[in-house]
Amino acid sequence: MSGAVPLFRRCFGTDPQVGWRAPGRVNLIGEHTDYNDGYVLPIALSLGVTVALARNGSDRLRLVSAQHGQDVATVALDALEPGALSDWTAYPAGVVWQLRRSGLDVGRHGGGLDIAVDGDLPGGAGLSSSAALECAAAMALDELLHLGLTRPQVAAHARAAEHDFVGMPCGVMDQYASLLCTQGHALFLDTRTMTTEQVPLDFAAAGLHLQLIDTRAPHRLVEGHYAERRRSCAEAAAALGVPALRDIDRAALGGALARLSDATARRRTRHVVTENIRVLETVRLLRDGRPDRIGPLLTASHASLRDDYEVSCPELDLAVDAALGAGALGARMTGGGFGGSVIALSVAEDADAIAAAVCEAFAEHGFAAPIRLDAHPAAGAARITVPPRR
Ligand code: GLA
Fold first, then answer.
1. Residues that constitute the known binding site for Mg(2+)
2. In which domain, by residue range, is 248 found?
């Protein structure tokens, strides 16, 4: 039983009516492409966030999290407005705000809500803990209030909550991964058409291992940098006369770069265009049953994010270099960057030596010890049963 249910009972003295768990994600490849109408290829993690909730009959939200001190925060429904909350409560409260503003009458049908949160997904590790929390809350509300939303609709609401209530101008990859990934598959998403394909992914069957390394490097000014990258991509697309950088393909890249006068815009454009190409090549190799060949694409993605998109940091670069030095077939930062996690693909026998090499390199550089996590493609959000109290 999830810790969210006993936490709920302890803090609110009643049983929750519904519970949902939503996973974090790692992106195999396709970074900073989802706000350029491009392609992404995430997998869901087995680690996630659980939300238990119930109507409370008042006009308030009461929220508690096992990871945030276990004190109950209270927010009046009428006080919900963008920027009003600056801590973890902004994510579930933002979902309530978003559903209300889109005309789904959360107030009339549900009134106030009690919400308890627990999870095993580390926050701040670039593994989408915020999207997991939004998605678990949104699925729980969908069930509680009989909203009848599809998962893509839930993803759109969760993203709108983060975008418009929290103020992080993210793309839609994280919410899609948390809701639409399936076990044993990577989710190939075209963020223009919003079409998806479940691409079978079984590294173990191919004698391979994908490890995830949380560098524990603190995110540095992530949101400002993220918004700035987003803006420069939109400006580059406008200068090139295309709706989005997705519209520049391999053949058009050279001409496009020659038309951009600004060197930074050229680098940003080159990253997005080449990253989209790398996603398509990765998907092609996986469809052909050749996961052993994707390593160089992962490593090229990292170099592009480091040199052209400039969203890496010393800890991420060191983890990638140490993993490659110890025999990884490919390695890259995953997620938004400026800290967070790295993935490294290797033959299964080399995985432990790679993890040890990364730890050793971090110790030599005086960085905090990194944490190795599980990265098997897991399922998207799922309902949890709330057992009757004994
Ligand atoms: C963050 C955002 C995603 C995506 C990645 C970079 O995780 O939430 O939408 O843009 O960064 O690929």
1. 130, 162
2. 202-374
Confirm whether 388 is domain-assigned: no
For ligand 1, atom 5: residue with the closest CA: 336
Whole-model pTM above 0.85? yes
Low-confidence ranges of the chain (pLDDT < 70): 1, 105, 107-110, 219-223, 390
Domain assignment present for 389:
no
Residues with CB under 6 A from ligand 1: 31-32, 34-35, 170-171, 173-174, 335-336
Rounded distance from Cα 30 to ligand 1 centre (Å): 10
**H helix intervals, the chain:** 4-12, 90-101, 106-110, 129-144, 151-160, 173-180, 222-240, 250-259, 263-287, 295-307, 314-325, 351-364
Give the Cβ contact number of residue 316 at 10 Å. 28
Residue 177 and residue 116 share a domain: yes
Residues with catalytic roles:
174
- C-alpha count within 13 angstroms, C-beta hemisphere, residue 337: 26
